[in-house]
Specification:
Layout (H helix, E strand, L loop, with lengths): L9 E6 H15 L8 H4 L11 E5 L3 H9 L10 E3 L8 H6 L9 H14 L6 E7 L3 H17 L4 E8 L9 H15 L2 E6 H11 L16 H16 L14 H10 L13 E10 L2 H6 L1 H11 L10 E6 L11 E9 L2 H17 L4 H6 L4 H19 L5
Parallel strand pairs: 1-2, 1-4, 2-3, 4-5, 5-6, 7-8
Antiparallel strand pairs: 7-9
Helix pairs in contact: 1-3, 1-6, 1-9, 6-7, 7-13, 7-15, 10-12, 13-15
The chain binds guanosine-5'-triphosphate and magnesium ion.
Length: 400
């Protein structure tokens, strides 16, 4: 039986430096020769003529140029590569509205034209997966604009955003405004957001190589962006690569142990002491012992329900997929367990964005950069309101 995760016949749209660099690792992983060979598995990521189902958009050429060198030559369709002349200077407004002098030939219009053609190239269009950062001018601003335009033009297709949140330590003062605006746009126009927080990604990778967090200041990570992107790409692959629930020879996977170590890293409660909860959880088990996951299902499900604090009003909060092939580690017999949860701890991050953005907004700091590129007060007020209500909803998640 084939399950149909988000990847099926979807278009991958990578935007800005971060989006393209994460995309680079993603395509290296799923388009590699070692990836499972059957045409069915490769199908969702390619169109019939063998090109990747992907568009690459950036306001400046250098990152995309590198992408084209790194991913197998000819796998991207030339007309799906869309670059501009200069970056958007970490400014959401500049990314969203573009340079004033631009007209129908703008990056936005060119990207939408290519997107439309990519939709027409397939029998059925199911949706789009956006890869982008929440804080770069292009990734957040043009990302938000493309999300909005795609929703308007293809209202029935789903939109999943894979968004990367910046290091909290502060790389750029505009990041809080950009994240605020981008998150509020995603809340309005996307169906779902898979959030990767750069601090979390770094922390998890450091934990897995046994290094101490204190030794690595956020701005000079010994772990490079490229390492972090490989990690993000494997999480995505573990979640979105097609799965088959087939019977396989028994492995010796310790699902219980893997689950325990994942649950241990979850934040238990918010800064105000409220216990975090999940409205829904998806677990994907891959590898040679995947069928033993099904065998030990009841205790694992119980543990997952408790560990993730599943809300009582959802009668079926847990979902699981299994696959005998472990896309994440193709070198040896191995197992992986990946969990995707709608967990209220994400509201801690949003709360932090709201607080920092509010302080800057009240002090009128940096706002002239946003007015200059076409933003209005109403954009900010609406964004504050939307994000406030998301935080409130998470905080009331268990109360129904
Ligand atoms: N995980 C990860 N984060 C990245 C990467 N590149 C940039 N970032 C993060 O993305 C944010 C900056 O956004 P970029 O994607 O570089 O910006 P952009 O979309 O190209 O927009 P402009 O350059 O402002 O036009 C910062 O928070 C960085 O930490 C990357 O390769 N991996
Ligand atoms: Mg850039």
């Amino acid at each position: 039986m084939h399950c149909h995760p988000a990847g099926m016949s979807a278009i991958w749209l990578q935007i800005g430096q971060c989006g393209n660099q994460v995309g680079q690792e993603w395509w290296k992983l799923v388009a590699s020769e070692k990836a499972p060979g059957s045409a069915v598995d490769r199908y969702p990521f390619y169109t019939r003529d063998g090109k990747l189902s992907a568009l690459s958009v950036d306001s400046e050429p250098k990152v995309v140029r590198r992408l084209l060198r790194e991913v197998k030559t000819g796998s991207f369709r030339d007309s799906n590569i869309l670059v501009g002349q200069r970056g958007r200077g970490n400014n959401w407004a500049f990314g969203y509205h573009g340079p004033r002098s631009e007209d129908e030939n703008s990056l936005l219009h060119r990207a939408m034209d290519s997107f439309r053609k990519e939709v027409e190239r397939r029998d059925s269009y199911s949706g789009v997966i956006l890869l982008h950062s929440l804080s770069g001018g292009t990734g957040s601003g043009l990302g938000a604009r493309l999300c909005e335009s795609i929703r308007e033009e293809f209202p029935m297709g789903y939109i999943l955003s894979v968004a990367v949140a910046p290091h909290q330590g502060g790389e750029c003062p505009l990041q809080h405004f950009n994240s605020l605006l981008c998150l509020s746009w995603l809340q309005r126009y996307a169906d779902g957001v898979l959030l990767f927080h750069n601090d979390d990604v770094l922390r998890r990778m450091q934990a897995s190589c046994g290094r101490k967090i204190e030794q690595v200041p956020a701005l000079e990570p010994q772990i490079s962006f490229s390492d972090m992107n490989t990690h993000i790409a494997s999480c995505l692959a573990a979640l979105m690569h097609p799965v088959r629930s087939l019977r396989t020879p028994r492995g010796t996977a310790s699902w219980d142990g893997m689950l325990s170590s994942i649950v241990r890293t979850l934040p238990r409660h918010s800064s105000t002491g409220k216990i975090h909860q999940s409205t829904a959880v998806l677990a994907v088990a891959r590898g040679s012992g995947a069928d033993t996951f099904n065998c030990s299902l009841a205790p694992i499900m119980m543990k997952m329900k408790q560990g993730y604090g599943c809300v009582s009003w959802n009668p079926h909060p847990l979902n699981y997929w299994t696959d005998p092939w472990n896309i994440v580690d193709q070198t040896s017999p191995s197992q992986s367990l990946t969990i995707c949860a709608n967990h209220s701890s994400v509201s801690d991050y949003m709360q932090c964005v709201l607080e920092k953005a509010r302080i800057m907004y009240d002090a009128h700091a940096y706002l002239h950069w946003y007015w200059k590129h076409g933003c209005e007060e109403g954009d900010f007020l609406q964004a504050f309101e939307i994000l406030d209500s998301v935080v409130d909803e998470y905080s009331a998640a268990g109360d129904h």
